[in-house]
Amino acid sequence: MSDNIITITDFMDPNLDVYARLTENQLLNRANPKEGMFIAESPKVIERALDAGCEPVSLLMETKHVNGEARGIIERCQNIPVYTASFDLLTKLTGFALTRGTLCAMYRPKPRSVEEVCRDARRVAVLEDVVNPTNVGAIFRSAAALHMDAVLLTPACSNPLYRRAIRVSMGTVFQVPWAYFPKYNVGSDNTFSDASLHDKCDSSDQNCSDRNSSAYKYYIDVLHKLGFKTCAMALTDDSVSIDDPVLHSEERLAIVLGTEGDGLHEQTIDSCDYTVKIPMSHGVDSLNVAAASAVAFWELAK
């Protein structure tokens, strides 16, 4: 095991670049997705990533953990570099003190399709433009704990394999199947492509706004074609209470949660089968999207 243990003494060592200096977008590597990586933090999270089949590239840890809490991880990750350093050097890495002393760079798994992750699903969560990785991670943790079968994300959502999202999720992003809806192609009807609406037109243009609305409707149409009834978590005049028996009677249900602040797009709400509210008190009109997700998953997955 000692042959692949490499001691780091300089914070600027290029072997630390993947952990200390590459941005999330650089790790994602859009130009060559097969080489895209993510960083898993703490032995528990790394174990969950390995259990999900993720391929490790290298490890970084405090020297004392080589024969301590990281020993099992090292044994599972045969023949990859294991970089070690003092705690003082490693604390220069953002957030290292939160990791319990072990980091692992891993290749990103092959993306899965919406159809694939929904094939045997009964309850799925749909995130519309949730851009805060902390919220994405918290929603995944709730989804794992509260019986969601899959999580689907619109293209504007923060990536579940961003470092903070993985950390907040406690590695449940590797346990709950998830997929992105492909970006809607404004140049054709009822098709998806890699072309973004925002790449094609100015959002102030009315035609572009109409097409933007069509994209939101299309995501819901896909869910309908896959056999799901859809419920938009939103406050409207015709919202039904989350404990309405009709919701529990649905064989397949997609729970649609909106972006921080603005909530769901109007077209999304109009396209869903139900609009659902969580009863509130003390004049509170809404919850943070991560908190709302936990309530919704608990009630609707019964």
UniProtKB/TrEMBL annotation:
GO terms for molecular function: RNA binding; RNA methyltransferase activity. The keyword rRNA-binding does not apply. CDD domains: SpoU-like_rRNA-MTase. Keywords: Methyltransferase, Transferase. Coiled coil: none annotated. One of its GO terms (biological process) is RNA processing. Residues 124-184, 217-297 form the tRNA/rRNA methyltransferase SpoU type domain. It comes from the Bacteria. Pfam families: SpoU_methylase. This is tRNA/rRNA methyltransferase SpoU type domain-containing protein. It comes from Agathobacter rectalis (strain ATCC 33656 / DSM 3377 / JCM 17463 / KCTC 5835 / VPI 0990) (Eubacterium rectale).
